[in-house]
Design brief:
The protein folds into 2 domains: about 1-50; about 60-105, no CATH class. The protein is about 75% helix and about 0% strand. It has helices at about 1-30, 35-50, 60-75, 80-90, 95-105. α1 (about 1-30) crosses α2 (about 35-50). The longest helix has 29 residues, at about 1-30.
Length: about 110
């Protein structure tokens, strides 16, 4: 029984923050009307639907994967690397070939 009440309170607080930010910044900057808390709640829901619900690691995830892949590859022997590379070439992972070309430039 407590969780729905806390969820509504949290949503109301977020909507209030959106309303405050909108009403204190945007009317002066881009000359729009002020909004009510209900309109702020609608804007908040719309933004969540359009831009996602905050998956962990959303931004920078590709770079993190690339760094982790490079870290694993630095300890591979040339034979292991060639075998690993053949699994990626031409398939759906072919966009990661830049990892291999960067590695070759570093070793030369």
């Amino acid at each position: 029984m407590v969780f729905p009440i806390m969820a509504m309170a949290f949503f109301t607080l977020l909507s209030y923050v959106v309303m405050l930010l909108w009403n204190n910044i945007l009317p002066e900057v881009i000359h729009v009307e002020t909004i009510t808390i209900w309109q702020a709640a609608g804007i908040f829901i719309l933004c969540k639907l359009l831009f996602g619900f905050g998956r962990p690691g959303g931004f920078g995830k590709r770079q993190m994967f690339k760094n982790r892949l490079a870290e694993r590859m630095k300890d591979m022997s040339p034979e292991e690397m060639e075998k690993f590379k053949q699994g990626f070439d031409g398939g759906r992972f072919s966009r990661f070939n830049e990892c291999f070309t960067d590695r070759k430039k570093e070793t030369e």
